[in-house]
Design goal:
The protein is an alpha/beta fold. It contains 6 helices and 8 strands; from the N terminus they run βββαβααβαββαβα. This is Carboxymethylenebutenolidase.
Length: about 230
Amino acid sequence: MTDVTIATLDGQQMPAYRADPAGAPRGAIVVIQEIFGVNAGIRRKCDTLAAAGYLAIAPDLFWRMEPGIELDPDVDAEMQRALSVMGDFDQDAGIRDVEATIRYARAESGAKVGAVGYCLGGRLAYMTAARTDVDASVGYYAVGVDALLGEKHAIANPLMLHIAGDDGFVDAATQAAMHAGLDDHPKVTLHDYPGEDHGFATEFGKRRSDAAATLADERTAAFFAEHIG
């Protein structure tokens, strides 16, 4: 596990966290952060993927505003700061930085590349599926997908979305719009987790729900095994 820099599409250097498997990678996974930055939970996601045989890389997508932001959602002041940072974040630039990470991961692994994102990262995983050549994507409790359904025609590779049924940031109407817009898409699979709240698959903290997290992660592992390697 190490910190690296990745050349961005506009010729700058972006910090990222990288976790390597013990042997040759079976594929690579770009891990897309929540609004809390590349914190201990996101690094743990990378480490777990590396233990499963993948090269895992989490780009610091807030680096253009302030490199190295790490926040704890269980601390109210840090949650409020995270919401503020999200409001200032340029998502289009973020997707270009994800694309740069995909290119880096593909070159470093010599294999297929997937993406998995959480919260804001779940939304970005959807956008990545629609706007890049990533081989497969997974989004956990993605926010605001209803406003992105106009891009669904561009999703050419498999996408899986995990939906928290009692999500405080994704209401029932938004969830219904996601199903109405995506259920018949040949490349998209939606999974619902009734009664679960936003953040249920976090590695640490109060938001985690073990049973739902385990089920979602098992589905994600099988999905990547099928589509990445």
